[in-house]
Design goal:
There is one protein chain. This protein folds into 2 domains: 8-156, 3-Layer(aba) Sandwich (Lysozyme-like), CATH 3.40.80.10; 174-222, no CATH class. 30% of the residues lie in helices and 13% in strands. The protein is built from 7 helices and 8 strands; from the N terminus they run βββαββββαβααααα. A 6-stranded mixed β-sheet has the order 1-5-4-7-3-8. A two-stranded antiparallel ribbon has the order 2-6. A hairpin with a 5-residue loop joins strand 4 and strand 5. Helix 5 (174-181) runs parallel beside helix 7.
Length: 232
């Protein structure tokens, strides 16, 4: 049984606007704040001079704030791409997790995230394969939520995806498989490989190998990006 939805505090950020072209969110993007405390992050996400925001912010102890209404465009993703989606801000809900980037994500925080996400996914009909990390859509410049984030745990809750059975890539290389899955083809391969490993093969290192290809082949076959979505 999932944890009940945590208490939600409203802390409106001015850093938002209308979703462009009347877009409907079909992605959830997970981030870490990389700041010394949740209070510092909250101040920055609501500072007009910073020009950044998110829809939700979750503290290490599970406290939860809504900064931007879900039907509004928060400024959390920046430049990047996932599949055909290039204006990720207009097509996503952004969730920031308070974390310095150097420590694991505590149980109360993960429980709060797992309680928050089902409602968002139901309201906007977002499938599990459209839950991504900031590093997935901007692997050349972003690393969050990083290798310490437990994506496999989210997948066990039915809130994300995880590789199932390693699959023969059938002659396809990393670049083709990565593009089928969602990574932008214009991003250097090394950056895409790091983002892929942080999420699906944490701890893996060294040159591209057969295990990478077999894992990615499974994901690309089961979850080809934009399979049933309009182009951006």
């Amino acid at each position: 049984m999932r944890t009940p939805t945590p208490d939600l505090s409203q802390h409106p950020s001015p850093n938002c606007g209308e979703r462009r072209n009347h877009a409907r969110p079909d992605l959830i993007v997970l981030h870490y704040t990389a700041m010394i405390s949740v209070e510092v992050a909250l101040d920055r996400l609501c500072d007009p001079a910073a020009e950044v925001s998110c829809h939700y912010l979750i503290a290490e102890d599970g406290r939860l704030w809504q900064l931007v209404p879900e039907d509004q465009r928060a400024w959390h993703a920046g430049a990047g791409q996932w599949g055909s989606v290039r204006d990720v801000n207009s097509r996503s809900i952004g969730i920031e997790l308070a974390n310095t980037s150097t420590h694991p994500f505590p149980e109360p925080q993960m429980a709060a995230l797992e309680a928050l996400m089902p409602g968002i996914m139901t309201r906007w009909d977002i499938p599990v394969e459209r839950v991504i990390g900031h590093s997935d859509m901007a692997p050349a410049r972003k690393y969050d939520p990083g290798g310490r984030f437990d994506w496999q745990r989210l997948a066990r809750q039915g809130l994300s995806i995880w590789p199932d059975t390693p699959r023969d890539p059938a002659g396809q290389g990393f670049d083709a498989l990565a593009e089928t899955f969602g990574y932008a083809p214009t991003t250097p391969q090394d950056d895409r490989l790091c983002a892929f490993r942080d999420r699906f093969r944490p701890g893996a290192n060294g040159p591209l190998c057969k295990d990478d290809l077999m894992c990615l082949a499974d994901l690309a076959a089961r979850f080809p990006v934009d399979a049933h979505l309009p182009s951006a």
